[in-house]
């Protein structure tokens, strides 16, 4: 999939085999875990080679050429936006949760409380990490294609609490002080994705932004800033848009990532129906 609009040739789809002229090296394959949408298990997500901690235990992922951006859990997308200086709409729910429950969340985590049960324990969620959901992947993809927010899948306050728990965990693991953690949480609240999933960055700062990486199988697949930042327009009217959008799907279907055109443009993708697996290699 060629994402360079200045070139005459676009992408190519091959049935019944692969074209070796469009990739180099060997493909890394991941077994399909849910048929119909080529879903597979993805490991941790890293920013500048540092774990975000959100998908350390594994996340589901889908490769979808019908999705332009990279869609992932809002907790991770917010950390990315913070790292690259993206500006989104401030979430009042997030700041309210941090202000009213930040201390309690820290105390419960320090007391070794099960992180998945904290938000229900303090009354912000109606489940304890094992809630079933009544939404299928089909509707998730449909709404993503229409660029609609999926915040309605779970209550906004509950989602904000779940993100805060992950963020606090991450900072406690780094031995940050209470004051440092609260400052960090408020910074992340300021970086929450806008409702339609888009966040804008300073075009002059793209070269200094971090590399982001996905763990799939036994390999790490990285994207550089020029690969995950989309420039719209030219000259003084140019805008640079973050290629990441928030997508929150509760267990057992989520958390889930949708690797769209941005990822497929960098990594040659093989949909191996016969062996029920998806493969990735560096595209050329």
Automatic annotation (TrEMBL):
* Keyword terms: Aspartyl protease, Disulfide bond, Glycoprotein, Hydrolase, Protease, Signal, Vacuole, Zymogen
> Boundaries of each Peptidase A1 domain copy?
1-281
Q: Name one GO biological process term.
A: proteolysis
Instruction: Kindly indicate whether the keyword Membrane belongs to this entry.
Output: no
Molecular function terms from GO:
aspartic-type endopeptidase activity
Task: Enumerate the subcellular locations listed in this protein's record, separating them with semicolons.
Answer: Vacuole
Keyword Protease carried by entry: yes
Quote the SMART domains the UniProt record gives: SapB
CC terms in the record's Gene Ontology section:
vacuole
Predominant subcellular localization, coarse grouping? other
Q: Where is the Saposin B-type domain?
A: 89-129, 154-195
Domain of life of the native organism: Eukaryota
Which family would the database say this protein is a member of?
Answer: Belongs to the peptidase A1 family.
> What is the name of the protein in this document?
Peptidase A1 domain-containing protein
């Amino acid at each position: 999939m060629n994402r360079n609009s200045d070139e005459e040739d676009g992408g190519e789809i091959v049935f019944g085999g692969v074209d070796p002229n469009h990739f180099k090296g060997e493909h890394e394959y991941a077994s399909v875990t849910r048929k119909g949408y080529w879903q597979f298990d993805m490991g941790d997500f890293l920013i500048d080679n540092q774990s975000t901690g959100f998908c350390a235990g594994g996340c589901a992922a889908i490769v979808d050429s019908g999705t332009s951006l990279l869609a992932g859990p809002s907790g991770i997308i917010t950390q990315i936006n913070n790292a690259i200086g993206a500006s989104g709409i401030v979430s009042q729910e997030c700041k309210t949760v941090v202000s009213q429950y930040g201390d309690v969340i820290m105390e419960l985590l320090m007391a070794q409380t099960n992180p998945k049960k904290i938000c229900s324990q303090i009354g912000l969620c109606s489940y304890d990490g094992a809630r079933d959901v009544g939404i299928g992947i089909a509707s998730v993809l449909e709404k993503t294609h229409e660029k609609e927010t999926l915040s309605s899948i779970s209550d906004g306050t509950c989602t904000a609490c779940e993100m805060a728990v992950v963020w606090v965990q991450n900072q406690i693991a780094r031995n940050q002080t209470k004051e440092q953690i609260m400052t960090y949480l408020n910074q992340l609240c300021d970086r929450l994705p806008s409702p339609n999933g888009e966040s804008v960055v300073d075009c002059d700062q793209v070269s200094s932004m971090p590399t982001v990486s996905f763990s799939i199988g036994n390999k790490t697949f990285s994207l550089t800033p020029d690969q995950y930042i989309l420039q719209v327009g030219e000259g003084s009217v140019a805008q640079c848009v973050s290629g990441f959008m928030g997508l929150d799907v509760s267990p057992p279907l989520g958390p889930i990532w949708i690797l769209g055109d941005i990822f497929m443009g960098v990594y040659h993708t093989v949909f191996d129906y016969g062996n029920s697996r998806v493969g990735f290699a560096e595209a050329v």
